[in-house]
Structures are given as C-alpha cells and as structure tokens.
C-alpha cells in the first residue's frame, strides 16, 4: 500500500518539495542580508524608516502570499486523495484485493497528515525566521497577514484545509464539488474566526488618551478600535466643537483645547504579549475542526457501500 501511494503521489511530492527548496534558498540568502543590513543600520544610527528594505517589497509580498498555502495544499493534495478514487472506481480494486478498507484509508490519511505537518511546518519556520528582522523593526506581529503566516498557525490552517478537502471528497465522491467545498469552506471559516472570534480570545484592554497625545498602548499591540469619548461617554454622530475651541488656529491647538474640554480617544487593543496565547488558542480551534473532519471522513468511508 505504501508503494502504491508513492507511485500515485510522487509527482505531487517532488513538485511541492522542489518549490520548498527553492523558496528556502531564496529566503535564506535575503534573510541573512536583511539582518546584516539592519545591524549595520542600528550601529551607525542611519536607519531610514520604512525605506530601508524598500527593494525587498516584492519578496515581502511573496511571503505574504504564503497565507494561501494551506488552501493550495487542500486543493492539490487532499481533495483528489479519496474523491478521485471514488470517481474513477479504483477504490473497489483495492478493497476486493488483500487491502482492507480500514488499511486503505489509514494509509492515505497517515501519508496526507504526515506530509502536511512536515511541509507546512517547514514553510512556517522559514517565513517566521525570515520575517524576524521586519518584526523587530516594525514591532507588530499582529499586523496584517503576519499573524496568519508566522508561528504555529500556518500548520493548523493546513491541517484544517486538508481535512476539509479529504472529508468533502469522501462525502461527495466527486473531485470538482470537493474542490468547491474546500475553497468556500476554508475561506468562510477563516474570515469568520479572523473577524469575529479572534478579538474575543481575551478581553481587550482600553486606554484613554488626550487628543493631542499619541495613544499609549504598548509597542506591538493589536489596535482593535479607536473611538472618541466625552466625559466617559462615546461620541456618536457629528462632533460638536466646543465654543472655546472654535477660534483656535491650528489642528494641534484645537486638539489641546478639545482635550481640556473633556474629549478623549479611547483605544481598545490586545497587548503584544498576548501574541503566543492567541496563536495557540486559534491553532487549537483549527486542529479541533480538523480532527472532527477526519472523523467524518473515516465514518463515511467505512460505512458507505463500495
């Protein structure tokens, strides 16, 4: 059975690991150069802000695109794994020979999950290491796609994607419908967790600051929202400028005057030291979903007629 699986999926494995090797060489060369450049910049106090790594912007965009890698794994590795066998009828040949249905499914799932863990783990480690210099410089790993492409989350996302794809293939027995369910289901769940669930992992902190001062949230914090308040109450609708502030000249003078009149900026945020707890909480959610989907796949295959 192992030999058969290798024969069936050796091209996918060769292409996937070949791309990984090329990507690793690219990140290694550029990552070392970026770290050296940043150390020299710090030593000479000649850092130029966001322009220091301007030439690496296309590569940074490429690294950001790895956010789609889990979905690609699900589409190319997992969706055809069982659905294609059912669609072409080749599963009946294995089940009527010396290979039991249980052994057939177990071998496929072990190879799929093991390969997913290795490949996604290698990708996450590479991206996290390469992004270390940018993280140090920008100080916010919650920002944009950094949270989703670094740490342990890419591995959890990949397990969820391949589990969803293989379960869809087992239930639908057709590869194209399984691909559709994989794409829609993965994107929908990711958006749901990202937008509505993640901010609630821990109760956010709120800090009030004067309008003429920068918000005092700690470096690396994830700012969820900023609202204007007046004497502790949220201001909605048009902002009424205090009479004594209407004749002020500059914007900074008006901000100072409005602050003296009781206006404050309420910043709701998650502090930067919650990065790893958030990573593990969200990873646990997606690993749990993956386990449920694998269970669905096993139940469907073992109970359904050939």
Structural key phrases:
2 domains; alpha+beta; 306 residues; 11 helices; 4-stranded antiparallel beta sheet
Could you provide a short overview of the structure?
With 306 residues, the chain is of the alpha+beta class. It has helices spanning 2-44, 57-64, 69-88, 90-95, 101-130, 132-138, 146-149, 153-172, 175-197, 251-260, 275-303, and strands spanning 205-209, 222-230, 233-234, 263-270.
Structural features, described:
The chain is of the alpha+beta class and 306 residues long. It folds into 2 domains: 27-38 and 63-201 and 273-303, no CATH class; 205-272, no CATH class. Helices cover 65% and strands 8% of the residues. The chain has helices spanning 2-44, 57-64, 69-88, 90-95, 101-130, 132-138, 146-149, 153-172, 175-197, 251-260, 275-303, and strands spanning 205-209, 222-230, 233-234, 263-270. β2 and β3 (233-234) form a beta hairpin. α3 (69-88) packs antiparallel against α5, α5 (101-130) packs antiparallel against α11 and α8 (153-172) runs antiparallel to α9 (175-197). The radius of gyration is 26 Å and the shape is elongated.
């Amino acid at each position: 059975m192992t030999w058969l699986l290798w024969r069936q999926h050796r091209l996918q494995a060769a292409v996937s690991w070949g791309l990984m090797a090329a990507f690793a060489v690219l990140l290694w060369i550029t990552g070392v150069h970026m770290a050296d450049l940043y150390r020299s910049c710090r030593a000479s106090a000649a850092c130029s802000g966001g322009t220091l790594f301007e030439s690496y912007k296309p590569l940074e965009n490429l690294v950001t695109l790895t956010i789609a890698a889990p979905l690609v794994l699900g589409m190319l590795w997992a969706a055809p794994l069982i659905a294609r066998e059912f669609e072409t009828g080749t599963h009946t040949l294995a089940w009527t020979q010396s290979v039991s249905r249980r052994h057939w499914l177990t071998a496929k799932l072990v190879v799929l999950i093991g390969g997913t863990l290795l490949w996604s783990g290698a990708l996450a480690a590479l991206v996290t290491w390469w992004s270390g210099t940018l993280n140090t410089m920008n100080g916010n790993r919650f920002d944009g796609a950094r949270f989703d492409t670094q740490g342990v989350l890419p591995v959890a996302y990949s397990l969820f994607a391949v589990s969803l794809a293989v379960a869809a293939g087992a239930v639908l027995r057709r590869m194209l419908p399984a691909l559709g369910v994989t794409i829609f289901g993965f994107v929908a769940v990711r958006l749901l967790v990202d937008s509505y669930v993640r901010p609630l992992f821990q109760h956010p902190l709120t800090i009030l600051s004067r309008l003429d001062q920068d918000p005092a949230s700690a470096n690396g914090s994830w700012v969820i929202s900023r609202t204007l308040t007046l004497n502790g109450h949220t201001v909605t609708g048009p902002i009424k400028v205090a009479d004594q502030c209407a004749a002020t000249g500059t914007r900074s003078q008006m901000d100072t005057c409005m602050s003296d009149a009781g206006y404050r900026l309420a910043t709701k945020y998650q502090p930067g030291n919650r990065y790893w707890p958030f990573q593990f909480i969200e990873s646990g959610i997606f690993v749990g979903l993956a386990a449920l989907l694998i269970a669905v796949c096993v139940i469907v295959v073992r109970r359904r007629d050939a």
